[in-house]
TrEMBL record:
Record key words, sorted: Cell membrane, Membrane, Transmembrane, Transmembrane helix
Origin organism lineage: Bacteria, Bacillati, Actinomycetota, Actinomycetes, Micrococcales
Location in or out of the cell: Cell membrane
Entry's transmembrane regions: 36-61, 73-91, 117-140, 152-176, 196-214
Entry annotated with the keyword Membrane: yes
Organism encoding this protein: Arthrobacter silviterrae
Membrane topology per record: Multi-pass membrane protein
Record's protein name: LysE family translocator
Length: 215
């Protein structure tokens, strides 16, 4: 895995991180009561993301060991999934823009502030119970595995990198919860971020399918 590959993956993770999603709104909600608890929630989410990367890496390693042909179809299926994510996200953004609405759940202040441990547990549980995180790794990791490379090691490197980027962003959001909330809810900001990430995901999905079909 080259430095350019890591930079490409990091860029994708950054785009996905700044697009408001369940983890963003969970951290915002918790941080409104206590900023440090919001940072702890970000850490919990990052830790759970690494756990997903490990699980996916073990599964992919088993597939590679058993059948190269099956692994090729896993890559193609992953590409199709990424294209679906990108296109569906773009269509939802257009629909929301036409309706004049900014999508995303509300994040009211909690009645009681979370403790740091409670925030960490909430962030970890939210990510662990989100199968889309596992599907994301399942779709992306195969593209970055070099021929004859270590599947599990590659998955863990990518998982740690994604977790670090996500934590840095979510921790920053927690530190400026009130201002970040107002900014992220602006329709133009949210629409621009979602369209950019949708295009990147779709392009990556096409690349995965082409790579899988050619291998």
């Amino acid at each position: 895995m080259t430095i350019l590959s890591l930079l490409a993956f990091a860029g994708l993770c950054l785009l996905l991180s700044v697009t408001p999603g369940p983890d963003t709104f969970l951290v915002l909600r918790i941080a409104l009561g206590r900023a440090s608890a919001g940072v702890a929630a970000a850490a919990g989410s990052a830790a759970a993301s690494v756990a997903w990367a490990a699980l996916v890496g073990v599964g992919l390693a088993a597939i590679v060991e058993q059948s190269a042909e099956v692994f090729r179809w896993v890559k193609i299926a992953g590409g199709i999934y990424l294209v679906y994510l990108g296109v569906s996200s773009f269509l939802k953004t257009r629909k929301a823009a036409k309706a004049g609405l900014a999508e995303g759940p509300e994040a009211p202040a909690p009645e009681r502030p979370y403790s740091r441990w409670a925030g960490f547990a909430a962030g970890a549980l939210s990510t662990l119970l989100n199968p889309k995180v596992g599907l994301f790794y399942l779709a992306v990791v195969p593209q970055f595995i070099p021929h004859g490379g270590n599947t599990l090691a590659t998955a863990m490197v990518l998982g740690v990198l994604e977790a670090a980027i996500a934590f840095a962003y979510l921790a920053a959001v927690a530190a400026v919860a009130y201002k970040a909330m107002k900014w992220l809810r602006r329709p133009k900001v949210k629409t621009g971020l979602e369209r950019a990430s949708s295009g990147i995901i779709t392009a990556l999905g096409v690349g995965v399918m082409v790579s899988g079909a050619a291998s």
